[in-house]
Design a protein that fits this description.
0% strand, mainly alpha, 300 residues, 13 helices
């Protein structure tokens, strides 16, 4: 049965919501786990669960699909790593703001690497979305770049690479196999970094079981699986635009659960962000219809 493409867009919006609530869960979980340990657990466990469930699909694995999954896992790991380490040296608001640059980068990456058509509505929507992200995340601090900001800029590039290549590889290979491979690659790389750089003696798993469970089964296993399947039917630039609403859901859930302040500036930024998605999805067809109706009335 053919599924309307709008269903996949809604699926990506739901993914962004899962990731948005993941900020709340991560804040709690990081009280008990070092960053690389947390990353390793959530991705390794998710990968192994999917591997057990879809073990019969392994027969469809080829060298090309394996290499594609490894590349996706490499980008995913680098994105999470630079974002997490960058957060140590910069503010959370600047970290979120700079990470949001990926929505601008994706259309140009797809154009440069895969010769995808650079549609004017995609570019305009991306710029508008970035303005919304700026209003959502900027706290009035200096816009000058420090070491943490530079790392976060690389994070935006790696996440943009991940979204772009998921959009291409998921159309060629089994998206479930790609998800399994990239999960295991990310988990293994995070484990290696944890062994090398972190002290795991202070882990207290009992204090964050619920948060760990959410990050593993919802924010990772379910969300990334949905992303890989939905991007099989959407353009990378469109997917990046919808997924960037994570920047909206994060503050919203933080306000509801953690009682953080939700300002007028953030609400305005969220409205602009959603407007950018409407423009991208409809290509301003609603305005065309409105103007056409007005023109027809003016001739009466």
């Amino acid at each position: 049965m053919k599924i309307n493409n709008k269903v996949y867009s809604v699926s990506l919006l739901l993914v962004a919501a899962f990731w948005g609530f993941g900020f709340v869960a991560s804040k709690e979980a990081l009280n008990s786990f070092p960053p690389f340990v947390l990353t390793s657990i959530r991705f390794t466990v998710s990968g192994l669960i999917l591997l057990i469930i879809f073990i019969k699909r392994i027969k469809n694995l080829t060298l090309k699909s394996l290499g594609s999954g490894i590349l996706l896992g490499f980008f995913l790991f680098l994105g999470f790593s630079t974002q997490t380490v960058g957060l140590v040296y910069t503010t959370a608001s600047k970290n979120a703001f700079i990470t949001g640059l990926n929505v601008i980068i994706v259309p140009f990456l797809a154009w440069i690497i895969f010769k995808d058509k650079l549609e004017k509505f995609s570019v305009f929507s991306a710029v508008l979305a970035f303005l919304g992200i700026f209003l959502l995340t900027w706290d009035g601090s200096s816009l000058l770049f420090n070491f943490g900001d530079t790392l976060t800029l690389f994070c935006a590039l790696f996440f943009a690479m991940h979204i772009t290549f998921v959009g291409v590889f998921s159309k060629k290979y089994d998206p479930i196999l790609l998800t399994i491979i990239q999960f295991l690659v990310t988990g293994i790389l995070a484990l290696i970094c944890s062994i090398k750089y972190e002290n795991v003696s202070d882990i207290n798993i009992n204090n964050s079981l619920v948060s760990l469970g959410y990050l593993t089964f919802v924010s990772t296993l379910l969300a990334f699986l949905m992303q890989n399947i939905a991007q099989k039917h959407t353009k990378p630039s469109q997917a990046a635009l919808i997924l960037c609403t994570e920047s909206l859901f994060g503050p919203l859930f933080s306000s509801l659960v953690l009682k953080e302040t939700l300002t007028i500036q953030m609400i305005f930024g969220g409205a602009i962000l959603f407007l950018s998605i409407i423009i991208c999805e409809t290509k301003l067809s609603f305005l065309h219809l409105l103007f056409r109706k007005e023109n027809s009335n003016s001739r009466i």
